[in-house]
Specification:
This is DEAD/DEAH box helicase. By secondary structure, the chain is α/β, with parallel strands linked by helices. The strands form four sheets. A seven-stranded parallel β-sheet has the order 3-4-2-5-6-1-7, with helices on both faces. The protein has a six-stranded parallel β-sheet with strand order 8-13-12-9-11-10, sandwiched between helices. Strands 18-22-19-20-21 form a five-stranded mixed β-sheet. It starts with a helix and ends with a strand.
């Protein structure tokens, strides 16, 4: 958080290892920005599976309400939102999936006409430019680039920030601050170090801090001989030659159909049979490549695969044997299983067979595979239920759509890889669902290794070596990307496919991985810049800009609970009638119980919330208990217990909420307090015995904004007019201490308001003069800091223009005698020059707008109260 807040414009890549709490880090930064008035409008972009979990974490831990724009919400709103209406104007703080932004034209178009204080992109590696990027990946990258330009602050969260290339890393840095990347192929840590936080599980500070909190995981390989029926099918695949593969022009094993078949049979006969039948039908109806000879070979193979029935499916039989050895019967609520498989057909087959073979009820086995139209809603429901103690779910069977970010560890410490992924990164991501911060039992991870009598089949078994390299990464290698040299799941799959297709065998494949790792270590030792760029970013944060050692602004009430108690007691009076039921206040327990008042309920005309539900600006609908009741407390241990208890109840969201300065109910209190007195008026009270006789104190609040309207100077003060007419300024801390205003303060009615009224104009005038003096004093420091920022931008711009000359040459004196190629190069150069001009003009203008104060000779001042001695 210190690294983020030290920046003028908060832009940070949080790239900590899997399971180390990136969402919590983002929440801490967001809540601090919100308290500083710099995060009124927030957009979170995440995966479909993560919508509810992210929303819940931000609410329960940080009191940040996010409106969840999932497919169900968008469907409800679809017919009620006019075509020209921007949906993001309705929601200041929202969360949406990247897939929704890709698919929904109306939502995507709204992005271009919206602006936020803060955008958070979760699983940001999905939006990075990758060597293997195509189709949806490149579309995600375009969306992320657009979002990066529509916000002041930006947080990118990912455990895999690059694919081993500087270009992929540079694409994320460019989203954060494009002025830092004149050449994407030549990044330097000294240019970007303040933009990145990255720690591995082997990082010393992580070992010290997290090692005590996360039990060490246990890996259990399950070796078994494959059946005769499987031997036949596997050998046929190992020896299969297809005309369509011979015609493949891309030259990569991953693109061969034989590789696709091998990947499918490694998952299950059901997945393999589905793959074969789809291709056979495609060949027959002319929609897929392949000759008649290919069709016949595939048909023969399909017959062999069909012969692998449940009894002959040795891996499945080994799974049943594993469960018998664990004495697992599905009765314990805290002994649940997560089973991962890459193929949806395998997920579906397992769900059906396990229900029958383990004698489980239909609702005890759930699946998450993204195969339905509204997969986001169904996935959120299943994941939430899996974490609840009272839920009947005992086995969750998931495809890799559930491998990123999700918390599956609340009631589960056993994970089974029914098929091993062809990617080390994917293997780590899967394991991270239960091997993560908050796990209270040693994670137990099982995987299967089949053994064959045929040499060609044995040469295909290389995946176990990925597990060994994951263990090496856990033990201290750090970045696991060094073993396969790809850095993203798709690239790693291509490397593994080459090893399987070539038949080099497991030992040779392991040697290749060790050689890559050794080369990376050598490069790091020889190239300090390489080591610095792709290594640990756990350097101490720079000093906070404007950091001070005081305890913040003075407070009339000693804490938020006392203030909330006073406000609720006032709002409970008959003349206010704010609550439908009398609130309960329990000082000994530091607990407040209220029923949501009418003006906190939704009047949504766009179909997002049901009529009468709580307004999403205050809290998510799921956070409200039965009857519209909520509980508030300032005791962190009570909140932590409530979050834990919610997992054992039918409700997944705790109704007890953390009462602190960041809770939205304080905004509601402020709105209601503004109605206590008529507009353009202020209270007048007697403070006899607390002020000197004849002394008048005028409490004022004033601010001087920047060009964006955000306050740069924000001041409360007491203007004290003495009986002789002199006016002096007194800071609020001194005034509150001198008058003991926080104590019970009896006030006598004032019959004569002459002195009070006379003190106001002169106090306001003197306070405005003081604000102008403050502005002038601050302007010198601000201008000095601004000049330093602009000098830095100018130096960066010089590097951009120098790089442009290196790439495209100098601008010619004349273009009369230029060749077509030279003219094309000149056109590209001029376009690039315009882009550089716009980039640095935009960033310069942003700093000037946010740093410079409005030079108003009469700053706006509010009279808050008048006290007479």
């Amino acid at each position: 958080m210190e690294r983020a807040l030290a920046q003028d414009r908060v832009r940070l890549l949080i790239a900590d290892d899997v399971g180390l709490g990136k969402t919590l880090e983002a929440g801490l930064i967001t809540s601090e920005l919100a308290l500083r008035g710099r995060a009124d409008r927030i957009l979170v972009v995440t995966t479909r599976a993560m919508l509810t979990q992210f929303q819940k974490e931000f609410w329960t831990r940080f009191s940040i309400p996010l409106s969840r724009l999932d497919s169900a919400a968008i469907r409800r709103m679809r017919n009620k939102i006019p075509a020209h209406y921007n949906v993001f104007d309705q929601f200041d703080r929202s969360i949406v999936s990247i897939d929704t932004l890709k698919r929904d034209n109306q939502i995507r178009d709204a992005l271009k006409h919206s602006y936020w204080d803060l955008i958070i992109i979760d699983e940001a590696h999905n939006a990075a430019e990758r060597k293997s990027a195509a189709g949806s990946n490149s579309q995600r990258a375009e969306l992320a680039q657009l979002l990066s330009r529509r916000t002041d602050s930006l947080l990118l969260l990912t455990a895999t920030p690059h694919d081993g290339s500087q270009e992929s890393f540079a694409s994320l840095i460019t989203m954060l601050d494009p002025t830092r990347v004149p050449d994407p192929t030549r990044l330097h840590r000294s240019d970007i170090g303040d933009l990145v936080v990255r720690r591995f599980r082997s990082s010393p500070e992580v070992v010290v801090d997290i090692g005590r909190e996360v039990p060490k995981r246990e890996l259990f390989p399950r070796r078994f001989p494959i059946s005769p029926e499987e031997e036949v099918a596997y050998q046929s695949i190992a020896e299969l030659h297809l005309d369509l593969d011979a015609q493949e022009t891309r030259g990569r094993a991953i693109d061969l159909f034989r590789t696709t078949i091998a990947k499918a049979i490694f998952s299950s006969p059901a997945a393999c049979h589905e793959t074969l039948e789809r291709r056979i039908r495609g060949i027959e109806n002319g929609t897929a490549r392949g000759t008649e000879a290919d069709r016949d070979r595939l048909r023969a193979l399909a017959d062999q695969v069909v012969a692998i029935d449940t009894a002959a499916f040795s891996k499945y039989q080994e799974l049943l044997q594993l469960l018998r050895q664990l004495r697992w019967n599905g009765k314990s609520t805290r002994d649940r299983l997560v089973i991962f498989s890459e193929r949806i057909a395998t997920v579906a087959w397992l769900a059906e067979r396990l229900r029958e073979d383990l004698n489980l009820a239909p609702d005890q086995v759930a699946r998450v595979d993204g195969g339905s139209v509204e997969a986001d809603v169904r996935t959120q429901e299943v994941i939430e239920a899996f974490g609840q103690e009272r839920s009947p779910i005992r086995i969750l069977i998931a495809s890799d759509m559930a491998s990123e970010g999700l918390n599956l560890h609340f009631q589960c410490h056993r994970l089974i890889h029914f098929d091993l992924p062809w990617s080390l990164l994917r293997f780590q991501q899967r394991n991270g669902r239960i091997d993560r911060y908050g796990q209270d039992r040693p994670p137990q991870i099982s995987y299967f290794v089949g053994e064959s009598a045929h040499p060609k089949v044995r040469q295909m078994w290389v995946l176990e070596k990925l597990v060994a390299k994951d263990e090496a990464a856990q033990a201290g290698v750090g970045d696991p990307a060094v073993f396969l040299g790809a850095g993203d799941a798709e690239g790693e799959e291509a490397v593994v496919a080459e090893a399987i297709a070539s038949g080099i065998g497991a030992e040779a494949f392991e040697r290749q991985m060790d050689e890559r790792a050794a080369d990376a270590v050598t490069q790091m030792s020889l190239d300090d810049e390489f080591a610095a760029l792709f290594g640990d970013y756990a350097d101490p944060a720079p000093a906070l800009i404007g950091a001070s050692t005081d305890d913040g602004p003075p407070r009339l009430f000693k804490d938020t609970f006392t203030y909330a108690t006073a406000m609720i007691e006032r709002l409970s009076r008959p003349e206010e009638n704010a609550f439908p039921e009398m609130p309960g206040i329990f000082p000994a327990d530091r607990l407040i119980r209220i029923t949501i008042p009418a003006d906190m309920r939704s009047r949504d005309g766009f179909g997002y919330a049901s009529e009468g539900a709580v307004d999403g600006r205050f809290m998510p609908e799921e956070a409200v208990g039965p009857g519209g009741r909520i509980e508030l407390t300032d005791q962190a241990r009570v909140i932590n217990q409530a979050i834990s208890d919610a997992k054992a109840q039918e409700r997944a969201w705790p109704t007890v909420q953390f009462l602190w300065d960041g809770h939205p109910i304080l905004d509601w209190f402020a709105d209601r307090a503004s109605t206590f007195f008529p507009e353009h008026s202020a209270p007048v009270a007697s403070l006899v015995g607390r002020l000197l006789p004849g002394e008048v104190a005028v409490i004022l609040h004033g601010a001087i904004p920047n060009a964006n309207g955000a306050p740069v100077v924000d001041l409360w003060a007491a203007m004290i007019r003495s009986p002789d007419g002199m006016v002096r300024i007194e800071d609020m801390g001194t005034f509150l201490a001198r008058t003991r205003l926080a104590e019970d303060t009896p006030s006598r009615p004032l019959e004569d308001l002459t002195a009070a009224m006379a003190a106001i104009p002169i106090s306001v005038d003197r306070f405005q003069t003081h604000l102008v003096e403050l502005r002038r004093a601050r302007e010198t420091d601000i201008q000095r800091d601004l000049e330093a920022v602009l000098d830095r931008l100018a130096a960066l711009e010089t590097r951009f223009r120098a790089q442009l000359t290196l790439d495209l040459g100098d601008v010619p004196v004349s273009d009369v005698s230029m060749s077509p190629v030279e003219k094309r190069r000149l056109t590209i150069r001029r376009k690039r020059e315009q882009e550089i001009d716009k980039l640095f003009n935009d960033w310069t203008e942003w700093f000037e707008r946010t740093r410079k104060m409005v030079a108003d000779p009469n700053p706006h001042v509010d009279v808050k109260a008048v006290f007479v001695g």
